[in-house]
Specification:
- This protein is mainly alpha-helical and 275 residues long.
- It has 2 domains: 2-149, no CATH class; 177-257, no CATH class.
- It has helices spanning 2-17, 34-49, 51-77, 88-101, 126-147, 156-159, 163-171, 179-198, 206-212, 216-220, 245-257, 263-273; strands spanning 25-29, 105-112, 117-125, 229-232, 241-244.
- Helix 8 (179-198) packs across helix 11.
- The longest helix is centred in the first third of the chain and has 27 residues, at 51-77.
Length: 275
């Protein structure tokens, strides 16, 4: 009995004093889900690095020892044949698995070929790194197989999540970076375009604006009218000035027709959805 106790005590002491020899590094590929995946691995790393969690396995091991001894004594009290120290085997192997797979910490690098982003998360338990890494290798293999049969430019690795449609949806709200011009355009539509739509003999229709137009500037230019007034805003007159619809459009059209005024809006769309 004394011999078994010394063996168990020595093994436990060796396990608790053991330190990981090297960190495990693996890759994890995701397709359009970069932020949720990174957040998940980051939370796992924070949980297993918490000082409160690191003391929890010792408490669980003590409870396991108590439960094992209690079950062994109860079996011995019934007169059944018992093997000395057999109760320590599951506790010992449980400790081995935990210390071998969860105590060592590795790194996992998340790649997103769709968004062209990557980030390395450290202090992730080796068990999580191994499981996530190998399962992801299977997923990547399936994606590669599917992409070989995909149409050119429609590969899952570059179009997952409908990123192209999301980018187009973001573009529809783009406008020049000029608050005065935007506010003036709103007033132009309210005062000038609305008047033109209800004017007898007009060639401008709401259906054309909503469904048929391919150039809003051409259609909006039909609302010029020297007899109708609107409010135009600029840096010189931030409070706004009363001008005719013709004068307002002559000031607005060069701003909205200049491609350089959309550079920042396009960069934001590309940064958010593509690059």
């Amino acid at each position: 009995m004394k011999k078994y106790s010394i063996i168990i005590f020595s093994a436990c002491l060796f396990l608790f004093l053991a330190t990981p020899a090297m960190a495990l590094d693996m890759e994890y590929y995701t397709y359009g889900g970069f932020n949720p995946i990174v957040q998940a691995f980051t939370k796992i790393a924070l949980i297993f690095s918490d000082s409160g969690y690191q003391g929890l396995p010792f408490v669980i091991m003590v409870l396991g020892l108590i439960a094992g001894v209690t079950a062994w004594l109860a079996r011995a009290a019934t007169g059944a044949r018992v093997i000395p120290m057999v109760w320590a085997v599951p506790v010992f192997f449980g400790a081995v698995l935990y210390l071998a797979l969860f105590m060592p910490k590795g790194n996992i690098t998340v790649y997103d070929p769709v968004l062209n982003r990557f980030q390395t998360i450290g202090q992730v338990p080796d068990a999580v790194v191994i499981t996530a890494g190998f399962l992801n290798k299977i997923e990547r293999g399936m994606v590669d197989i599917i992409d070989t049969a995909a149409a050119p430019g429609a590969e899952y690795q570059t179009t997952a999540g409908g990123i192209g449609f999301k980018a187009l949806e973001s573009v529809k709200g783009s406008s020049p970076k000029n608050n005065y011009a935007r506010t003036s355009m709103i007033r132009y539509v309210k005062d000038c375009v609305t008047f033109e739509l209800v004017r007898p003999g007009t060639t401008l229709s709401l259906d054309d604006l909503r469904n048929n137009t391919t150039d809003f500037l051409t259609d909006l230019s039909q609302a010029v009218n020297p007899a109708v007034y609107t409010v135009y805003y600029d840096a010189a007159h931030p409070e706004g000035t009363n001008v005719t619809c013709t004068d307002a459009w002559n000031s607005l059209r060069p701003i909205y027709a200049n491609p350089a005024n959309y550079d920042e809006a396009i960069k934001k769309v590309c940064t958010r959805h593509i690059l």
